[in-house]
Design a protein that fits this description.
77% of the residues lie in helices and 0% in strands. By secondary structure, the protein is an all-alpha fold. Helix 1 packs antiparallel against helix 4, helix 4 runs antiparallel to helix 5 and helix 4 crosses helix 6. The longest helix is centred in the N-terminal third of the chain and has 30 residues. It starts with 13 loop residues before the first helix and ends with a helix.
Length: 182
């Protein structure tokens, strides 16, 4: 039995925690879908397109689940969805314009951050919300598989890999922080 960590001043109460989790995860899955849309707009006929399409389909399934959960739990989506609509597509398209390896580096960086993000959410939920915790755990497994696929497809061979990866990770962490709150 996992015990949730002790709440500190300023920490969200259990209801607020679930609202933040649902809001940010919905935003993240939407952003991921838009990244893949941007990549496919550029690389739609490339050798990596089937791999990207497969990952995009899984992100769509995740998004569909959160699309159902938000109204069920009476949680509003982030107000930043229009920004993630444009920004996600732009990040995907720009990474793809840099080449297939850069598209994979983008995926690897995003999914690495999401793996850690989902792990923290699972820990915060503890034994509360077992169905939500299981959903997040399943989606986390998919995100880890996406990251590992991107690595196997040569993400580290992308131009300016270290710099690009650090930049994408910073963008992803900022998007998470904002989407939890706005």
């Amino acid at each position: 039995m996992t015990k949730p960590r002790r709440r500190l001043a300023g920490d969200p109460d259990p209801r607020q925690l679930v609202e933040r989790i649902l809001r940010v995860d919905h935003a993240g899955e939407y952003g991921a879908k838009r990244i893949y849309d941007g990549q496919l707009a550029v690389l739609g006929r490339s050798p990596s397109a089937p791999t990207i399409r497969h990952m995009a389909q899984q992100e769509q399934e995740h998004l569909d689940a959160f699309d159902r959960l938000l109204p069920q739990r009476r949680v509003r989506p982030t107000l930043l969805s229009p920004l993630w609509h444009v920004g996600g597509f732009a990040l995907g398209a720009v990474s793809a314009l840099m080449g297939e390896k850069a598209a994979m580096a983008c995926t690897e960086a995003v999914e690495d951050v999401i793996d850690q993000h989902y792990a923290r959410q699972i820990e915060k939920l503890g034994d509360a919300e077992p169905a939500l915790r299981e959903t997040i755990a399943q989606f986390r497994a998919d995100e880890i598989a996406h990251r590992d696929t991107a690595r196997a497809e040569g993400a580290a061979e992308a131009p300016a890999y270290e710099l690009f990866s650090k930049g994408v990770k910073a963008i992803t962490r900022t998007a998470i922080w904002l989407s939890e709150r706005i």
